[in-house]
Amino acid sequence: MDAQFPSISPGGGDTMKINTKESIIVRPSQDIPQQRLWVSNMDLLHPRYYLPTVYLYKPNGSSDFFEAEVIKEALRKVLVPFYPVAGRLARDENGRIEINCNGEGVLLVVADTDSTTEELGEFMPSMKLRQLIPTVDTNLQDISRNPLLLLQVYLLLITNNHSKLG
């Protein structure tokens, strides 16, 4: 699946240079129940969109802290008990939206940037912060094409006393 990444160029230093290393679909590590689950009536009232969130973690000293393979394997394992997340939206014979638990997987983007956490400021909504969130075309008529979960993992430079350590 080709992901569409944000092309945000507002000018004036509000962008980051992002190097996308890999964009893959990660599937559960084991077979999962193949079933369809109804979306709740409450969820049907809301428009379909991805809820963007950004989490930052300090390195824990482990040599494999940001190893993409470690992240992929952990994601493969967690998708087994949380198998609906690895599915796709679908419509039943009456047109009602449901989750097709088909194990097609979630989007994982691995990237790095030469930006620092300090350059992200107070984490208020901004074009710079928005670049940390992957995007897909949500205007598609075929709702079964997009993953339910999009993850974008970055390695940011660490600073200490205003000098880059990366």
UniProtKB/TrEMBL annotation:
GO MF assignments: acyltransferase activity, transferring groups other than amino-acyl groups
Domain of life of the source: Eukaryota
Family, similarity comment: Belongs to the plant acyltransferase family.
Descriptive protein name: Shikimate O-hydroxycinnamoyltransferase
Lineage: Eukaryota, Viridiplantae, Streptophyta, Embryophyta, Tracheophyta
